Amino acid sequence: QLQASGGGLVQAGDSLRLSCRASGSTPIKYGMGWFRQAPGKEREFVANIDWSNDRTRHADSVKGRFTISRDNAKNTIFLQLNSLKAEDTGVYYCNTVPPINTYWGQGTQVTVSS
Questions:
Q1: Would you list the DSSP string of 31-77?
Q2: 44-50 and 90-97 strand pairing
Q3: What is the rounded average pLDDT of the residues 84-91?
Q4: Angle 77-83-84 (CA atoms, 0-180°, nearest 5)?
Q5: Computed from CA positions of residues 56, 64, 79, 88, in that sequence, does the dihedral angle turn out positive or negative?
């Protein structure tokens, strides 16, 4: 499993930085990404980064506010969350891209109060 960390309870407009470290045995095919699940909703894509060229992609709902990055040496990805909104509340997960079912960890809770 991949374990995300860095979540918390913040106010609207605040920032957070999430982290996720992959072990050397993680079968990363194309890259890694962040996903989230809001209460009562299905899990959705947030952002991903390609391992070969560092190209990134962000969901429209977070463009301009969230930024995915990685530390090559530590096999770690990050998600910088700025200008948080109440609708960003949810459990944030990291996984490979494409996702591997057995690698969904418990995620990290992000709660944004308005």
A1: EEEEEEE-TTS--EEEEEEETTT--EEE-TTTTTTEEEEEEGGGTEE
A2: unpaired
A3: 98
A4: 75
A5: negative
Whole-angstrom distance, CA of residue 29 vs CA of residue 9: 33
SS3 6: coil
Cα–Cα distance for residue pair 12/98, rounded to 1 Å: 31
CA–CA separation, 62 and 86 (whole Å): 12
pLDDT classification of 1: cutoffs 50, 70, 90: confident
Rounding to the nearest 10 degrees, give the CA dihedral for residues 54, 44, 58, 68.
-50
